[in-house]
Amino acid sequence: MIAKVEPLTQARALRGPFDYKVPDRMEAGVGSVLVVPFGRRRVLGVVVDTAEQSEVPAEKLVEPIEALEGGVPPELVRLGLWTAEEYVSTPARGLSLVLPPGTGTGARQRTRARRALRAALTAAGRDALDGGARLGAKQREALERLARGPLPAALIGHATVRRLEARGLVTIEEARVERRPEINAVGARGDVTQLTPAQAAAVERIEAAFDQTSASLLLHGVTGSGKTEVYLRAAARALGRGRSVIVLVPEIGLTPQTAARFERRFGELVAIMHSKLSAGERFDEWARLRSGEARICVGPRSAVFAPLSDVGLIVVDEEHDPSYKQEGDPRYDARRVAERRAEQAGAVLLAGSATPRPESFERLERIRLPERVDGQGLPPVEVVGMLDAPGPLHPRTRDALEAVRRAEEKAIVLLNRRGWSNFLSCQVCGRVWKCPQCDVSLVLHRAARSVTCHHCGHREHVPSSCPDCGSTSVARHGLGTERLERELEELMSPLPVIRLDADVAKVDEALRAFDAAPAGVLVGTQMVAKGHDFPDVTLGVVVDADSTLRFPDFRAEERTFALVAQLAGRSGRGSRGGKVIVQTADPSADCLRHAAAHDAEAFLGEELARRRLLSYPPFATLIRVVCSSEERGAELAVAEAIRERIDGVPVLGPAPLFRLKGRERAQLVVKAAERAPAVRTVRAAVESVAAEHARRGVNFTVDVDPQ
Ligand code: ADP
Ligand code: ZN
Ligand code: ZN
Prior knowledge:
By secondary structure, the protein is an alpha/beta fold. It is built from 21 helices and 30 strands. The protein has a seven-stranded parallel beta sheet, with helices on both faces. Strands 16-26-25-17-24-23 form a six-stranded parallel beta sheet, sandwiched between helices. Helix 10 (279-291) links the parallel strand 11 and strand 12 (296-299). The chain is globular. 46% of the residues are buried. The protein binds adenosine-5'-diphosphate and zinc ion (2 copies). Residues 189, 192, 194-196, 199, 221, 223-229, 373, 533 line the site of adenosine-5'-diphosphate (ADP). Adenosine-5'-diphosphate binds at residues 189, 192, 194-196, 199, 221, 223-229, 373, 533.
């Protein structure tokens, strides 16, 4: 038999797959992972196809060295290759998405470690402990710990355990250990016995969809309408039909309660994927899915590649969340991959959100959950203009916060800028502190005593004087979460103020602290508006709605609407009701008006009309090509060359982008009515230009469906 093998190498230009002759003693099929000779090296490769015969002359065919145990299901091989093709990546990188964790490109070993050494106390060991035998401090401590029961040898230290074993005081045996991750379930509330009529109707619609060849549904439900309960029931129905389930969530660290609810309901059947898992935990969860021991995978975007067979349902929770798009190669969109996988498997795709993307609203069949489960209305939203406001907080906002302080309630305050202030300037000569590597201003972080570039991480000490003119008056402009935290501490004292943004190391602690506090303020970036379920928040504030609205991006309106609506959803979940204040320079902006009226349909209707007019998704596919170079001018020349080779689709640019990490950048944007030919011509253009410019230090990224 001939195995067609895609080697897992970094090289971009390889034209695989390559043929290998599989000897009879070796078992290899599509999805097997083989160690193969490749040129002078040995590399890992994945079997992507098999054949009876090869075009390669028999004397040139070589045999694989070894077949590793495990491998991946054939349908995942297809999905990995499809993803590589669709997002202009390489087969090796596409396949690495579906392989067991720890199988990197070019890597030689992988995490196995389902087995570990366990140490147990022997009778002699117990005697030694009781009888005061001569023991080193470490050995005594080890025996004391083992007296309470066997432990993984790694926990005690292999050297110590080996020494004790030599003295007959402990035994060591290899045992299968399962490293199950723990999830911290902030805000996970009680179980539900009776569905609302809208929930019941939703579950019935999904049930009916199981009998269709494939169906894509959008569960459009306001925040608090019980979408998660619908996912849980739908998952139970899928399991009842002998099928497995994938549940994609934005980020488990931020919204642990969805994962926790699945785990509570389905116990051992659930495997959790999570960026904070150790390599071992990740591998074990993967293996439990592969073996069929676990039938539900809950995790972030990479969980779309979970090694489940017979998938019947793929849930995409909070489908509007930008984290579904991968930022590194392959730049895949898990929502699109989920659709593809559902189609391949004949599964139901169920995307859910209170603020669905215009794409999904247009293309998927809608199921509505129009009301909150608790029967309460959505909180009133007041939009206030900031042009004449005396400070960063509008007087209305200050009053509302003051009321929260007096009544000892809870508020969430959102400001999408971290740090203390977003730029520094010299008041005498006008110098602005900029990153030496990127054309952006440095952000002051007072707690860390540094000014930092948010794009490359460059740091400097906080300047006390201007290096250009020597002046000591350095002005700080703009408001970040750190400074807002300080202002709120003064305003809200004695209530606790808890900050949550990317600079906070312990996100779960911050969330837990806010959940546990009887009253207080949670202040932070958009992280505070994710799907938390705090029942007793009475005020939500968006401090600067313009920071997302003014963003030069066709998704600016969509993002701003979602931010306000999501924050409104965090507020007023309890018996005391609640309200939301949105501060903006332009209170007449349509997306804010619709958000204030909780009118997602009106917003989406207008947004879709605008996108149709301007040929944006879902009415066109966008492909962004960024060229970068250390040498000024090369990036533009190369972008121009690519543009000339893109055939038959409209291209915008090249347009310069700000310098990043010492590299000049230029971008092209392709807007194509037809996706597949556009992806093909862009790939061909970039690859041919890249081959010519490889040595000139120009880099390329191609981003299909940019966020
Ligand atoms: P969403 O995901 O739509 O924001 P959740 O699923 O988090 O809403 O539900 C909000 C709250 O309502 C949760 O605490 C959940 O346990 C509760 N809930 C959901 N469905 C019901 C129901 N049918 N009856 C009572 N409580 C429910
Ligand atoms: Zn100066
Ligand atoms: Zn920088």
